[in-house]
Specification:
Elements: E1 4-7, E2 17-21, H1 32-39, E3 44-48, H2 65-81, H3 83-90, E4 97-102, H4 104-113, E5 121-125, H5 131-142, H6 149-158, E6 170-176, H7 184-196, E7 202-207, H8 216-229
Parallel strand pairs: 2-3, 2-4, 4-5, 5-6, 6-7
Antiparallel strand pairs: 1-3
Length: 230
């Protein structure tokens, strides 16, 4: 059983449930304010615990560089892999789900929808749907060697940028233009790729003077997008 926190709306006017995935080194409680705001829009909200966080073997020093480099992508891939188990536990059809993720959670949510084509919506905040592009940027910025051929094969298996665009999920991509943690280039690459494939169910909002955070303007835009699409 995957631990989770559930927010029930006082007036459940929406048929969809929003699943929120938090960022690296964070916790489910960090999503309390956003989950509360969205539940007030009539959605049920579920915030699952992510491996190596909260009660799931949390790492003692998650922001130490060697720890991040060892566990960041493993955490993303593991969470994508266990999604089948999670939706079986919550017993909600894919078409009734909207996935929202920030930072690492954005990577996770984007990875999941590339395998689950009936999911109704995706909101990716300061994450990336272009795994290889983002990892290459991480490695350049940290002075590491490029991915080996074997590592590239693993990334290609999960990378949404490498998957067929045969789903109809409504997508909202959001990114701070000054993001110094997760480069906006990953989102830009993903957006460019899928729009060139003729994908029309997507919006990409960028935010000047915003670093790696969720601004009040972003929250307002999330609410507006949900109201217009669901």
């Amino acid at each position: 059983m995957i631990a989770k926190k559930v927010y029930q709306p006082t007036n459940k006017s929406k048929e969809q449930t929003i699943i929120i995935y938090h960022g690296w080194g964070s916790a489910i409680e960090s999503q309390h304010e956003l989950a509360t705001i969205l539940s007030e829009q009539g959605f049920q909200i579920i915030v699952p615990e992510i491996i190596y966080h909260d009660t799931r073997n949390p790492l003692p020093n998650p922001f130490e560089i060697p720890i991040m480099q060892k566990y960041f992508w493993n955490t993303i891939f593991h969470t994508i892999n266990e999604f089948n188990l999670f939706i079986k536990e919550i017993a909600i059809p894919e078409e009734k789900l909207i996935l929202l993720g920030s930072s690492m959670g954005g990577f996770i949510a984007n990875g999941i929808i590339s395998n689950h084509h009936k999911i109704a919506g995706l909101i990716n905040i300061n994450g990336s749907g272009s795994y290889l592009t983002s990892e290459n940027i991480f490695r350049i910025n940290s002075g590491r060697q490029p991915l080996t051929s074997a590592e590239q094969k693993v990334f290609a298996h999960y990378d949404p940028r490498q998957k067929e665009m045969n789903y109809h999920t409504s997508m909202l991509l959001m990114h701070g233009e000054l993001d110094s943690i997760v480069s906006i280039e990953g989102q830009q690459d993903y957006y460019s790729y899928i729009t060139k494939q003729g994908y029309e169910h997507i919006h990409f909002n960028t935010y000047q003077e915003i670093n790696h955070t969720i601004s009040p303007e972003m929250v307002d835009d999330i609410v507006k997008w949900l109201q217009n699409n669901f």
